[in-house]
Amino acid sequence: MCDVLSVSRSGYYKWRNHETSQQELRKNQVLERIHYHFSDSEERYGAPKITFLLNKEGCNVTERTVGLYMQELGLRSCVSRKYKVQTTDSNHDMAIAPNILNPTVSKYGA
């Protein structure tokens, strides 16, 4: 079987007898909590807010690590800004500057 899969015999037995390390267990726990907080916030929270929540829970993790884990999971926050009307107020009492670049009546009579 090792010949068919192009894997060494020692590599196969190392993989088969592998036990998860403490670091892998902690990472899996953090990934689970990140996914929970992301889905709980309706996919709005990014790395800074999720880092704050994880630190509040007692899980000491940096913002960069949370960002990398979110990227690994394929999670990205999508926050749209509120719609703000940005129209010009044409009803004002201020003086209107004359149009000197494209005058409708020429000074030179042409």
What's the short story on this structure?
The chain has 110 residues and is mainly α.
Write the layout of secondary structure elements.
Blueprint lengths: L1 H4 L3 H8 L5 H19 L6 H11 L5 H11 L37
Helix pairs in contact: 3-5, 4-5
Structure in words:
The protein has helices at 2-5, 9-16, 22-40, 47-57, 63-73. By secondary structure, it is an all-alpha fold. It has a domain at 20-79. It is 48% helix and 0% strand. The chain contains 5 helices and no strands.
Keywords:
elongated; single chain; 110 residues; mainly alpha
The quaternary organization reads as single chain
As a percent range, the share of helical residues equals 40-55%
Secondary-structure element string:
HHHHH
Ends apart, CA distance between termini: 94 Å
Q: What coarse outline follows from CA principal-axis ratios?
A: elongated
Biggest sheet, open or closed, and with what strands and sense? none
The secondary-structure class comes to mainly alpha
For the secondary structure, the number of strands is 0
Overall average pLDDT: 87
Q: What is the rounded Rg?
A: 31 Å
